[in-house]
């Protein structure tokens, strides 16, 4: 999961890109970067850290131009190395910068093709650099002996769709030609476009979430369709084309559960409204497990579970209270790499109001339970604050399977629900009772808000990988790489040497 933004304007865009990234900061807190285009030349600055820490006045002054792209990173592939901060840049053809949200599932195959067929070298472990080089190669192929026009751009994107597997929402700049945005044929990761009519002409803004458009004064135009590409040329004209053969919309269900801001609308469904619905369906499950009077108070784990907790309490007729106060200067623990860092950050992030817990049977509502680290710490905090009984409810179903499309859940043994019953998970997090949302109820929570949405990427809950290329062997390789990073790097280096030798012999 990352945040991406691209803009074409008649005015300098450095401040606009910076402000838009601030609105998308919740999508990634590991690194940030901006690349602008001025007189067919790129200016770029990127580094590890929050948006506000990466960019100083001198950096902003160097980012000249009336079009540009930005990125805030949450690492899922590669590492947290500063070299893997985005946007990425490649010199030929034309000069291209690219920012990517998602995760490729066939990047090893693509790397091999880069060496053997495309004659391109990959400098990092980032799948985004692989995607950039595939796009660059296909643009080069589509413009051999020809000038770059929208038709050739769309032909290149169609070739990218045929070669690349996985989830990807992309913004890219082609020096001196325009800004390109496209979405994978399954529409897994979100992408939308907004418009702003000014005295100097029309401006366009492409972003991961609608909140970035509205916050910057742009009118939401529409979501980019699965497989669709949009190209805004240097004259500010918008060109659109469907570039995939059989596109289908399968938005990521976890975006609605946790990742997106509640004030965003993704694929026609208000995130806030879907979370209210999750609370309603969860209340039905809770009512079936508890008798009247068992629960004294319902409390959310701030912030993303608050709408579900409010609606659950309302439907049950139980008092709602805020029992935890959040330190907003601590990052989102789900996005933090490493269990030890997450465990330490929970106590720094949340503080219990003792008076709200003392002597009460408390139902804590969270958006989801992934590794269980946060849940266990929070249950203990509630007990220490004096709660008589601590019950726990998850607005999402059990996370049973790895996510390979851009969320940091790559190994099964890190998932608390994997191989455990609800009763066993309850004991693990030390709660007195545990209630999970049903998978069908989660999907209905979204479909109820936008009936046009019927299919979802919900692999971490139901084990169905919509791209059709994720095998048990693939998941095993991911787990091996995670648990044996040194061996995985050596294996990758050996594969690279082999590919180089094969390319040299051809």
TrEMBL record:
Pathway: Purine metabolism; IMP biosynthesis via de novo pathway; N(1)-(5-phospho-D-ribosyl)glycinamide from 5-phospho-alpha-D-ribose 1-diphosphate: step 1/2
Co-factor remark: Binds 1 Mg(2+) ion per subunit.
EC identifiers of the protein: 2.4.2.14
Binding-site residues for Mg(2+), renumbered to this chain: 304, 366-367
Broad EC category: transferase
CDD domains: GPATase_N, PRTases_typeI
GO MF entries: amidophosphoribosyltransferase activity; magnesium ion binding
Record key words, sorted: Glutamine amidotransferase, Glycosyltransferase, Magnesium, Metal-binding, Purine biosynthesis, Transferase
InterPro entries xref list: GATase_2_dom, Ntn_hydrolases_N, PRTase-like, PRTase_dom, PurF, PurF_N
UniProt xrefs under HAMAP family: PurF
Designated name of the protein: Amidophosphoribosyltransferase
Originating species: Massilia polaris
């Amino acid at each position: 999961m990352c945040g991406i933004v691209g803009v074409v304007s008649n005015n300098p865009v450095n401040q606009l890109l910076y402000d838009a990234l601030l609105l998308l900061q919740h999508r990634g807190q590991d690194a940030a970067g901006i690349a602008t285009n001025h007189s067919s030349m790129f200016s770029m600055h990127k580094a590890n850290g929050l948006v506000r820490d990466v960019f100083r006045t001198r950096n902003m002054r160097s980012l000249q131009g009336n079009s540009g792209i930005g990125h805030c990173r949450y690492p899922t592939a590669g590492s947290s190395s500063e070299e893997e901060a985005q946007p990425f840049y490649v010199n030929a053809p034309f000069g291209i910068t690219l920012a990517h949200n998602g995760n490729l599932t066939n990047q090893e195959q693509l790397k091999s093709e880069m060496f053997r067929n495309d004659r391109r070298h990959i400098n990092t472990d980032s799948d985004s650099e692989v995607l950039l080089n595939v796009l660059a190669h296909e643009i080069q192929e589509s413009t051999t002996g020809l000038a770059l026009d929208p038709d050739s751009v769309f032909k290149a994107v169609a070739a990218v769709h045929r070669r690349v597997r996985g989830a990807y929402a992309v913004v890219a700049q082609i020096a001196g030609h325009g800004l390109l945005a496209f979405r994978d044929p399954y529409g897994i990761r979100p992408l939308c476009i907004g418009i702003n009519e000014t005295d100097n002409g029309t401006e366009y803004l492409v972003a991961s979430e609608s909140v970035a458009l509205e916050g910057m004064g742009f009118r939401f135009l529409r979501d980019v369709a699965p497989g669709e590409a949009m190209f805004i040329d240097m004259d500010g004209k918008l060109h659109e084309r469907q570039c995939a053969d059989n596109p289908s919309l399968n938005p990521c269900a976890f975006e609605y559960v946790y990742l997106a801001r509640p004030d965003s609308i993704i694929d026609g469904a208000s995130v806030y409204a879907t979370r209210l619905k999750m609370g309603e369906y969860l209340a039905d499950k809770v009512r079936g497990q508890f008798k009247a009077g068992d629960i004294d108070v319902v409390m959310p784990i701030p912030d993303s579970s608050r709408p579900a907790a409010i609606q659950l309490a309302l439907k049950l007729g139980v008092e709602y209270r805020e029992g935890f106060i959040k330190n907003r200067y601590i990052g989102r623990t789900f996005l933090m790499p490493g269990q030890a860092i997450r465990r330490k950050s929970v106590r720094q992030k949340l503080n219990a109001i003792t008076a709200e817990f003392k002597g009460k049977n408390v139902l804590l509502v969270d958006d989801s339970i992934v590794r269980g680290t946060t849940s266990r710490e929070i249950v203990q905090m509630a007990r220490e604050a004096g709660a008589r009984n601590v019950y726990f409810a998850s607005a999402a179903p059990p996370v049973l399977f790895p996510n390979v499309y851009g969320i940091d859940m790559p190994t099964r043994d890190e998932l608390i629900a994997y191989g455990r019953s609800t009763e066993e998970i309850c004991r693990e997090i030390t709660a007195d009772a545990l209630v999970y949302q049903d998978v069908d109820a989660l999907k209905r929570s979204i479909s109820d808000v936008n009936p046009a949405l019927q299919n979802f990427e919900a692999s971490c809950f139901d084990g169905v990988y919509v791209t059709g290329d994720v095998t048990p062997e693939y998941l095993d390789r991911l787990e091996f790489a995670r648990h044996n990073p040194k061996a995985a790097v050596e294996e990758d280096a050996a594969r690279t040497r082999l590919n180089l030798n094969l390319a040299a012999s051809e």
